[in-house]
Amino acid sequence: MPQIVVENLSKSYRVSERAPGVWGATKGMFRRAARTVEALKAISFSLERGELLGFIGPNGAGKSTTLKILSGILEPDSGRCEVDGLTPSRDRIRHVARIGVVFGQRTQLWWDLPVVDGFDLLRDIYSVPETQYRRTKDAMVELMRLEPLLDQPVRQLSLGQRMRCEIAAAMLHRPSILFLDEPTIGLDAPSKLAVRAFVKSLNRDHGVTVILTTHDMHDIEALAERVIVIGNGIILADQSFESLRKEVLTERRLFVDFVGAAPALDFPGVAELHRDGNSLELSFDPSVVGAANLISWISAEYDLVDIHIQQPRIEEVIARFYNLHGAIEA
Amino acid sequence: MNSSRLYLRYVAASIRAQMQYPASFLMLSASQFIGTLIEFLGIWALFHRFGQVRGWTIGEIAVFYGVVHVSFAIADSISRGFDVFGPEFVKTGNFDRLLLRPRSTTLQLLGHELRLTRFGRLLQGVVVFAIGVRMVPIDWSIADVTLLLAAIAGGAALFVGIVILQATLAIWTVEGLEVANTLTYGGVQAAQYPLDIYERWFRDFLIFVVPIGCVAYLPVVKLLGRADSVGVPLWMLDVSPAFGLLFIAVSLCVWRLGVRHYMSTGS
Amino acid sequence: MIARVAPYLSVFRMRFLIMLQYRTAALAGFFTQCWWGIILVMVLAAFFHGARSHEPISFAQAVTYTWLGQAFLVLLPWTGDPDVGEMVRSGNVSYDRLRPLDTYFYWYVRAMAWMAARAVPRAALMFVTAGLIFPLIGLGAWRMRFPSSVAAGLLFTPALLSVVLLSSAMVMLINLTVVATVSDRGANTLATPIVIVLSGNLLPLPLFPDWMHRFLFLQPFAGLVDIPSRIYVGNLTGAVALAGLLQQVVWIGLLILLGHHLMLRAMRRLQVQGG
Fold first, then answer.
1. Is the dihedral of CA B154, B157, B161, B162 positive or negative?
2. Average pLDDT over residues B2-27
3. Residue B80 contacts residue B113 (beta carbons within 8 Å)
4. Residue of C nearest to B200 (CA)
5. How big is the A-B interface in CB pairs under 8 Å?
6. Which range scores top for mean pLDDT: B16-20, B32-36, B183-187, C161-165?
7. Strand partners of residue A102
8. pLDDT, tens only, A261-286
9. What average pLDDT score do residues B242-252 get?
10. Interface check C207 vs B, CB under 8 A
11. Residue B12 to residue B111: CA distance in whole angstroms
């Protein structure tokens, strides 16, 4: 019995349009022209308890809409959405008591209060029993190393520190599901790594079901085995990330630094991407020529300083995927 | 934790947050105190020159004034969340966060902030009221005190109701409209005088449409023993503060409709 | 001389035109002002009802006085120029020093344009509403009247111009506190009640006790509402009216001198600290 079920979920918005200029503004005061935007067109998917799902897509694809419907703050137009047996928007209070939501770059804690005071207030809002609260709080504080931050007012924390507190805050009432909306946006590299590690631990060690939306593909790479790609309101892919990568981009990259000037290479399945003095960036298709064969051939033929292989960057994979399916930014 | 206790927790948190800026708090409270007191300065000047207004003396005006200002100060201080709902919750999308908590939106917005600086107006209202009752003979019976407290509570409820309606409007227009300010601040301006000094149509508007008259004017008229100058049955004078509660109940229904609308159209 | 004034004129024109675009903002608050004015007028009506024969200002004069106060409400020095607040917030104050203009007058002219442009649509609307529409809907007793005489109308124009000059000089002082305290809260909150009372916005100044009259006439805020309004309604005529105009000019001069001096000091401090 899956924990989250989404079936033929649809949602449209009415967006009012205004003609430009002064005349348009005057007209706009009396009658608003509106067009309908179909944000979600009958999407379906389901999620088992303890899964970690990455939800990706270009801007305006419908990610936020889906997340809002799943969290219960937006009503769908049609279709079925069930989380732990409840319909989110109908049983709002019961449903939100069981989920945690983290919005990137925003905090739900109180700006002028010390972090721990904000935690205590959340305990009261969620009616968490005292002993359970203390245990969860201590566990989160230890997991995310929040000890030195607890007595500081939230406004004094850096974004990275705030996000760590934010994730802890979302977990205080022991939700079984955690929604993360662009949690690493704007964070510096060490903070991103920290956030990814924590989310992974919450999922692996504590069994929390996680749905993560992000534009940072390294988040996906680090965390998600399963990925749903959404574009223009429909689901374009629902599979493991590795299989997605294999499907979209079969080629690999080879970087070679020659002793002398880089030569012109002619080899089946190999194409030159970029030439820079003594260096070459090549792309090759592993089904035509194996990596090992290619490397041994080049090193036999030429004098080399360095050689290494790379997967194509994830951004390329995803961009290529969006392209293939005509999923453009709305 | 039940809702009332949670509200008190919110209040404690809000006070702690405001106390982090003590200098700013003192300055704002002081300027509120002075800023509202000057209103009475204007009234005093008029009485100094004209002696009375349509049979009312300055002492009696002071009682009306005090009751209205105390009611409004209480309402103003607790309704901050609804007051800034448009710019701070709808425009920013922060309202979503409130919907993600397993509590009613009303409780959360009431708990958003308890504006302590409004104490300036409250204090000023109490001072003027005290001056008024010294000048005017009132036999304070238990019933009278109850009526006074009910008038203040009813008035506060009415003003909070107006702000709630304004917040609901912000869901539709995002910007909200200034109309509510005319009714709150304007209502205080109007009701600090006994309503019978105004034209009939205005008095009726303030009794039947926006019932500020019901919660400030009528009960105080009864207290001052002037019941016969008003064409309203006696029993209604005693019950009039209840109209404030009725008003806020209606406002909350409208609010709930607004929240449902928000949830079906997104932000 | 023209060449020296020209850049300031064009600065004025530019800000004025930009501010005129904010039409919706002009309408916001108009309804509130009408309501406010009506209540004030009704209260006055109630008090004047039991009045003895001779008061320092008649009911009709007081009513028009009140509407004038509402019409020109945005000309009062409530806050500092928001542009200055923005500059202080973003730390860009010293950039204005890069222009070949006297900083005080540069800001002064901008403040004038800011205020004047916001006042024009509101004043026009208020004149039409309280002057023309009220009589049509049966509120004729509370309408805004025309200037009491040709002379009154003629003297009102320089008085109104002086309001803009005077208020801008006061706004400049607020600007300077914003720069000095590096925050845009400034002296706003305490200044507002003082401005409201002493300008005549709360209550026409002649209605205050007689013993206050001399002080109220001489203080700087009188020139913001009281003096021009009384000239308009014919409460100040002849030599006294001219005295009122002079009072405005004197305060304008004093406040500009003070502001200019403080600006020099503030800028020098900025140069030392690094803007």
1. positive
2. 88
3. yes
4. C42
5. 67
6. C161-165
7. A180
8. 888 888 888 888 888 888 888 888 88
9. 91
10. yes
11. 10
The counts of H helices and E strands in chain A are: 11, 13
Complex confidence, ipTM: 0.85
Residue predicted with more confidence, A266 or B161: B161
What is the architecture of the domain spanning A47-246? 3-Layer(aba) Sandwich (3.40)
The full set of domain ranges for chain B reads 3-265
For chain C, positions 163-192, list CB contacts with chain B under 8 A: 185, 189-190, 192
- For residue B186, what is the nearest residue in chain C, using CA coordinates? C36
Does pLDDT of B24 surpass 60? yes
B87 CB near a chain C CB, below 8 Å? no
Interface contact B97, partner A, CB < 8 A: yes
Query: What residue spans define the domains of chain A?
Result: 47-246, 250-311
Which chains have 3+ CB pairs within 8 A of A?
A: B
Percentage of chain C lying above the pLDDT 70 cut = 91
Q: Where are the beta strands (DSSP E) in chain A?
A: 4-17, 33-47, 52-56, 78-83, 99-103, 177-181, 209-213, 226-231, 234-240, 252-258, 270-276, 279-284, 304-310
The three-class DSSP label of residue B198 is: coil
User: Whole-angstrom Cα distance, residue B255 to residue B168?
Assistant: 5
- Residues contacting residue A292 through CB under 8 Å, at least 6 positions apart: none
Structure token digits, residue B185? 């601040």
Pairing status of strand A52-56 against strand A209-213 = parallel
Min CA distance, C37 vs chain B (Å)?
10
pLDDT for the residue C275: 47
Q: What are phi and psi of C106, to 5 degrees?
A: -60, -50
Paired with A255 in beta bridges are A281, A308
A317 CB-near residues (< 8 Å, 6+ apart):
A217, A244, A245, A248, A249
Please write the tens of the pLDDT for every residue from B83-92: 989 888 988 8
Does residue C24 surpass a pLDDT of 70? Answer: no
Query: Between these two residues, A99 and B144, which has the higher pLDDT value?
Result: A99
